[in-house]
Amino acid sequence: MLNLNSIILFSESSEELVKFYKNVFEKEPEWSEGGYTGFQVGVSHFIIGPHSEVHGKNTHPQRLLLNFEANDVEGEFSRIKKLGATVIAKPYHPGEAKDMLLATFADPDGNYFQLASPMK
Fold first, then answer.
1. Is 101 within 8 Å of 111 (Cβ atoms)?
2. 33 to 9, 25, 49, 50, 52: CA distances (angstroms)
3. Dihedral of the CA atoms 101, 116, 27, 50 (nearest 10)?
4. How far apart are CA 60 and CA 76, in angstroms?
5. By three-state DSSP, how is residue 24 classified?
6. Has this prediction a pTM greater than 0.70?
7. Which of 19, 20, 60, 79 has the fewest Cβ atoms nearer than 10 Å?
8. Are the beta carbons of 115 and 76 closer than 8 angstroms?
């Protein structure tokens, strides 16, 4: 079976994204080298870095959705909203799943990320 080791988020403004995600994760990155910065998030690594073919904001943010598990989705929603993240969807229960809560934001590059209550 495969294990998701890391996600690399490329950006023309990687330094701005690193500052943003430091606040979202409430921690300093574990490493930074050669223009790339890595955060340990749960069991995976979240890496931000430059790429010569990536310019401007994401014009198709629905293509990939990053999910971050949170025990208190509403509390984290309020905290992250104050950081300046763009609100895409306020906390809601998807379909008939009353035990699941989701909230969606966009980061400074327009990439979507979602807060999700733990899956049972």
1. no
2. 15, 19, 10, 12, 17
3. -130
4. 25
5. helix
6. yes
7. 60
8. yes
